[in-house]
Amino acid sequence: MRIRGILIGSVAVSVAAIALGTTPASASVNFDPTTGTGFIGKGDVQTALGYNNAALQKAVDSKSLAFTAKQPTSQSLSQEVVQAGSQTGSQVGVQSGTQTGTQVATQVVSQDLTCNYTNGNGTKTFHRDGVRDGERTGTRTVSHVGIREGSRDASREGTRTGSRTGVLTGTLGYDIDVEARKANQYTGFILNGWKGEPSYAAGTTSWNSPASFGDWSFGDWSFGNWSFGDYKFGDYQFGDYAFQPVTDVQWGAWDSAPGENPDDCLRSTNAGKITALSNVITPGAITEGAVTNGALVDGAITPDSISDGAITEGATTYGNIESGVRISSGPAKLFVNDKAL
Prior knowledge:
Layout: E1 29-32, E2 37-41, H1 42-49, H2 53-61, E3 67-117, E4 122-176, H3 178-183, E5 188-194, E6 199-207, E7 212-213, E8 217-218, E9 222-223, E10 227-228, E11 237-238, E12 242-243, E13 250-251, H4 263-266, E14 274-328, E15 333-336, E16 339-340
Antiparallel strand pairs: 1-2, 2-5, 3-4, 3-14, 3-15, 4-5, 4-6, 4-7, 4-8, 4-9, 4-10, 4-11, 4-12, 4-13, 15-16
């Protein structure tokens, strides 16, 4: 008896590729699975079918005997998988701002005039108060912090492995042992080889879990608008007040006795009549008014680093299944009319 072990090919397997690595129960079976040729004793067929000589002869004459072989197989599988994902992120930014301000003020001014007359009128003193307007501008610079939220798409590639069971079934051509029959009666059946391609019936597919993924591959961030808090301003940095000239002061009346005219001290026609002329204008206290704020000019935003959030895993897309070589996963069996030999 002779049964050879063999290697099963790919899906489109040839007949000669079946491996029937089994040992039939009777030593009168001689079978070469590579070619599908061999010999099966008459007694083995009768035992399998429960036939006597007459019943077996009838089956032979009617050509109702069919010999088949079955081989359990296993097959390795691999599959590319792609998983989608998304990631949230936040980013802090700092923005500067500049604002101008204008402040008005008023200033009191006093004038004291003293002159000595040479015509016997003596010394005359005069006093008056006035007011003048002024204005100054200033600037202040400030910054505030904002935050914006964003998201980006991601994907990662991986593979998973598995296996699939199956059964290869082939039909064998045969003749009776004619030479032996000449002497007495035939002793068995000569197997002539495979008839056509064996058929493959796929069984259970099982996958190892989980898939083995590589690193995530990210796209660009897509950010929303910045959300800033209010500016918190410091004090204005003002320049000096620019006041109206003294000639534009809004003067009040001179403090003078009736009949006295302070303009007499200042007339050029009185030159020679007046000596020791003193004309002193003294600026007084400044009364500041309200500050009028100008437009706020926003500066550039300086973004900080992005804080990555959690990755949300999405759907997994499965690619084509790559099948490995079918191999024998158990003993092959011979059958006659679907009865095991």
